[in-house]
Design brief:
405 residues, alpha+beta, Beta-Lactamase, Rossmann fold, 12-stranded mixed β-sheet, 4-stranded antiparallel β-sheet, 16 strands
Length: 405
């Protein structure tokens, strides 16, 4: 009776919330949330088919592992087999097609029960949905498979008007790899566990947004990536180099040569002009951009001789961005860069960030509480209780000028 009620509620939600979602990205994310709740599943993922490459790519996932950069060939693994046969899989259960141990993709979970059903649109298979483990520790049943198929079909129906989407044709280059990252803080006689085994990859030339409630570990993660805090255990590898236990000197060199920072509070030196603030940073590195080019990049050449106190908040933040890019960094870390700005000024700043990703080939990782900003990212990572709760790939990133809040 309870499962029937969950099915009815999920069906209504799919036909209302998902139908009214703005694009294919939101539709997939909403659908995954709704179906997981209905089936009481621990995690799962939507895999979409890139027919040209004969491969499946994960688009929206809720699991501890970062599977964004992996793919499965049709006919291999559970997802590939389900797409090729168009038949659902139940593991364990009627799993004769999948001998033990089943060839299940690694989603960072110990998998004891799994449902995988094809996603069919206009009689063509366009991907599949994978649901992993029941929260109560029991196995999924044939009834659960039927429910999952019906809900997945409803998802497909509601997605019909969302348009087409593009999937990558090859994996992206990983520049930072984070594995089993843990961070504890001493709290009197006890310990505060902030990061609890976090796993994440950051790719070359991507705009990554990190969301999460206060206290979930966003700033701690950013500080560790930025070499401003140390980890308790785990590994952070930057282009093949483990920075987990570098000396203070080596961390200083890493911050100076590899990273650019954009802070909520701007952090400009008040006794230097805009151009002097940028030039000061440029002089710290070996191969900087011309400071004049950096300030032109953020459309502030006319304010080059102004002091921070003579500029608006948005202008100061754009100077902060120019100061970050003048080093020609591989990675820019941005911590709530629009939190202190009004809507129009935020859009101006975000447009600059958008341009930096597109034209400079720079990777940007941004912390924000604004879920609307997340729509312009290539990927959106949500943290919860010190680990990755879900990752969504934006198939159709929104331009900064089209954001509304």
């Amino acid at each position: 009776m309870a499962s029937r009620e969950r099915f009815k509620n999920a069906s209504r939600a799919l036909l209302s919330d998902v139908f009214h979602s703005g694009n294919i990205d939101e539709a997939l994310a909403f659908s995954l949330d709704i179906i997981l709740e209905a089936l009481e599943g621990e995690g799962g993922a939507f895999w979409m088919l890139n027919a040209k490459k004969d491969r499946l790519f994960p688009v929206s996932s809720k699991c501890p592992a970062d599977i964004s950069n992996i793919s499965m060939r049709i006919g291999t693994g559970v997802t590939g087999t389900v797409v090729s046969t168009q038949n659902p899989a139940l593991i364990p259960g009627n799993s004769s097609a999948f001998p033990s141990p089943a060839p299940v993709e690694n989603l960072g979970m110990t998998i004891y029960s799994l449902i995988c059903v094809p996603l069919i649109n206009n009689k063509e298979v366009i991907g599949c949905l994978e649901i992993i483990n029941k929260k109560d520790g029991t196995f999924f049943t044939e009834e659960d498979v039927v429910m999952c198929e019906h809900l997945t079909n409803l998802s497909s129906i509601t997605m019909d008007d969302k348009g087409f989407f593009n999937l990558p044709e090859k994996p992206k280059d990983v520049i930072i790899s984070i594995r089993d990252l843990k961070k504890d803080y001493e709290n009197g006689e006890s310990k505060l566990h902030v990061l609890k085994g976090l796993n994440l990859d950051i790719y070359k030339n991507e705009f990554l947004v990190i969301l999460g409630e206060s206290g979930c570990g966003k700033s701690t993660l950013m500080n560790i990536i930025g070499g401003m805090d140390t980890l308790t255990s785990g590994h952070v590898t930057v282009e093949g180099r483990d920075i987990s236990h570098l000396s203070e000197h080596d961390l200083t060199v890493y911050r100076r040569e590899y990273l650019g920072f954009v802070f909520q509070s701007y952090n400009l030196m008040p006794n230097l002009t805009a151009l002097e603030n940028i030039r000061y940073i440029a002089e710290l590195v070996d191969h900087p951009m011309r400071p004049e080019d950096a300030i032109a990049k953020v459309n502030l050449t006319a304010k080059a001789d102004f002091y921070p106190g003579q500029m608006s908040g948005g202008q100061q933040q754009r100077v902060s961005i120019a100061r970050a890019i003048v080093k020609n960094p591989r990675l820019i870390l941005a911590d709530e860069p629009t939190a202190a700005l009004d809507y129009q000024t935020s859009i101006e700043v975000l447009s600059v960030i958008e341009d930096v990703v597109k034209t400079n080939g720079t990777t940007i990782v941004m912390i924000t509480h604004n879920t609307q900003i997340a729509k312009m990212a290539d990927r959106v990572v949500t943290l919860r209780n010190g680990v990755v709760a879900n990752i969504k790939r934006n198939l159709e990133p929104v331009s900064a000028t089209d954001l509304v809040w």
